[in-house]
Amino acid sequence: MKRLLSIELQKIWLNKASRVLTLTYFILLSFIALIASIKFNIGPLKFQIAEMGIFNFPYIWHFNTYIAAILKLFLAIVIVSMMANEYSYGTLKQNLIDGLSKEEFILSKFVTIVLFSLCSTIFVFILTLILGYSFSSYTELSIVFSDLQYILAFFVKLVGFFSFCLFLGILVKRSAFALGFLLVWNIIEAIAKGILNFRIFPEGKTADYITQLFPLEAMSNLIVEPLTRTNFAKTIENQIGMENLKDYGVPFSAIAIVLCWTIIFLFLSYRILKNRDL
Questions:
Q1: Domain spans of the chain?
Q2: Is 230 left (phi over 0), alpha (psi -120 to 50) or beta?
Q3: CA 19 to CA 16: how far, in whole Å?
Q4: What is the pLDDT of residue 85?
Q5: What are the residues whose beta carbons fall under 8 Å from the beta carbon of 249, sequence distance 6 or more?
Q6: pLDDT digits over 145-166, tens only?
Q7: Of the given ranges (41-45, 65-69, 71-75, 140-144), which has the lowest mean pLDDT?
Q8: Helices (DSSP H) in 15-58: which residue ranges?
Q9: pLDDT reported for residue 24
Q10: What is the DSSP string of 131-181?
Q11: 209-231 burial by CB neighbour count: b if 16+ within 10 A, else e?
């Protein structure tokens, strides 16, 4: 396992583009801290982002993981490029000639995905603790660690998404086309969701039961948008008489679906690699 991981990390680090994208990703994650300094002046209404309660424990776990998940595209490019370079530079064929089995090859990619996801999760965890203890009004341990399910959801979301990117990289072979396919798939899911919600099942929750099985939709359901949970949003809702009934938790069903898709993507990646003439 250590040998496989070492081979993959060397490939990534020796590639300048992958190295820059990886460093950029972690640098951008740290910029979440700059959100605290943003101020708005809208006529008589003046407020600072940090005053909206987004850095209060335990809400900050939800907010930071949601924002950090948006930035995952940078590492997705690295994952897709990592696979595309195997074909472009002939390293895949050379690895197989040197004795690496196709099972070990897929395993090496998955271990790298897990490592990237784990490092990202640990980074966000530490960053959240620093920001929370710097700005939160509540620092009791029982409150600080009461919403850690978002950290688990973040990790599962990254592993699932990067596994999907690995599958696309193996399927398409070219990073640009693979990323394009990812965009097309996102559009396909959106169209299918719209048709199910507004044409086929306009009433009830049947459409939601179906669309939650879509891979990208399942990943999205792991961490729903947190902005309507803020004190500022709740104040506006109370003023206009609205009641927000959205569930902001991390559904176990979404975790199970994403893990199932992760296994499917890895299996399909292996089958394609096994059957393809290299």
A1: 2-28+61-275
A2: beta
A3: 5
A4: 77
A5: 149
A6: 888 999 999 999 999 999 999 9
A7: 41-45
A8: 16-30
A9: 86
A10: HHHHH-S---HHHHTTTTHHHHHHHHHHHHHHHHHHHHHHHH-SHHHHHHH
A11: ebbbebbbbbbbbbbbebeebbe
Q: 44-79 in b/e burial notation, b at 16+ Cβ within 10 A? A: eeeeebbebbbbbbbbbbbbbbbbbbebbebbbbbb
Alpha helices in the chain (DSSP H): 2-14, 16-30, 59-70, 73-88, 91-97, 102-135, 141-144, 149-172, 175-195, 206-211, 215-222, 231-240, 252-275
Q: Model confidence at 123, in pLDDT bands (50, 70, 90)? A: very high
Q: Do residues 164 and 215 make contact, with C-beta atoms less than 8 angstroms apart?
A: yes
Q: Please tell me the total number of residues recorded for the chain in this structure.
A: 278
Say if CB 24 and CB 84 are below 8 A apart: no
Query: Crossing angle, helix 149-172 and helix 252-275, to 10 degrees?
Result: 20
* Closest alpha carbon to 75 in 40, 38, 29, 30: 29
Q: Name which residue leads in pLDDT, 159 or 225.
A: 159
* Residue 201 DSSP code: -
